[in-house]
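EI: anyone free to look at a 464-residue chain?
SC: sure, send it
EI:
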Amino acid sequence: MAQYQSFPDAAGDSRTLEKLKALKLPDLAGRSFLDVGCNEGFFCGFAMYQGARRVVGLDHSALFVERARRRFPRCEFFQQGWEQLPDGTFDVILLASALHYADDQAELIDRLLARLSPDGLLVLELGIVSSPDSEWIRVKRGIDEREFPTMPKLRELLAGHAWKWTGPSVSQDGDPVPRHVLHVSRRRPVAYLLMQPPGFGKSTIAAGLFGPAGIPVVSGDQEISLAASGKREAPRALQQLLAANFSPYRIDQVIQEAFAKGAGEALVKQWLKQAGSGDFALDAYVPEQAQAVVVRTLNEAGYLPIVLGWERPGSPPRPDEDTLRQAEAYFASMGLSSPGAVDAAPAAQAIKGYVDALDVEAEGLVLKGWAATASGAVPEVLTVKVGNTIHLITPLERHARPDVQRHLGLSHAACGFKATVPLARNELPADLSRLEVFAAMAPGQIGSRLGLAAGLRQRLAGGN
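SC: here you go
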């Protein structure tokens, strides 16, 4: 039988080294490799040379198989055709210059693709006839006639897979059809990830982009709401975590906490339950530092994750706490007596309040508590008597106290305060239980005395 593959010690009809370069095989180190129609095993030897962990070659010719075994004893060679493929899957499968011999070429491609590992690659070297039509064209060769596909036919055959034309292969004397190299792999469903913070327009973009394309959109917020309320089946630990912290007004914080407590992977899998088996888009805020968990989980589930990023148009929304504090402070300010007030109260009302906490910090003596009139007006000045010294503190740092609002029936919660008396630690008296605090609406007023909360009195009575 004539020598086909070329080696340093045996020149053959094939320009084998040049073909190896044209095939553009991926790195084979640590991977499994199958050559269907291996001849004398040139490409199998290359895979072993690169460090492949398993190399298998198939060929009908007993002579070629025997020569291959002698040249490359560490590889596995079998005298058989593609009708009987070896057990297991392979990371890389090569079918070079042989597809036209198959009775059903489309079926052979499908069977080889089925033997690929999840991230495997089928390398096809084949003749392609130039034609705009999708068809098989019978071509007369020197020894027989065989059918070769056109490029439109190949596109049709490979429509359900991911593939790329990598370039022309090496021409051989007598070739009636130019040879080409294709790399084919299983098409992974695509997960389009819209994970920007709240206020970035994720839902609007998802509806406008993926809705018309027929790609389902999974709403992360909706799935969390359903799981937290028990309306969507979820792992018990995840459901309890979501339910314990759920609020429709702070879902972004619920998501942050889920990832912070190690439940991110479970949450992504919960979202995936609604994705189906094809492409989908995920509309869900994920903290930037946790997005790698999403990508890894989707990769492991067989998806191709595509992270979409964009800049937010317009001004970013204020943090919720800041918004609430500013709103409460504004509302409370309208309750203060002022020359421009409409129907202002004619007399200053008694101010009620308590100092709840007293701490010595680096900047001084810090007082926290609440104070307000029955109508909800809040003081602007605190007068603090510490020992023999008096300190006037204004303006006050406002804090929301919804507990006081409910207890007194106020129209707002901005009655809490924090005030700092600028005293060094060595300037503080030994007995702080004699501390006196007065709240007034404006400087120059005596104001009302604030009590010390019972717990604070007990702590101070025990010593500073």
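EI: The CA atoms of residues 64 and 285 lie 59 Å apart.
SC: 👍
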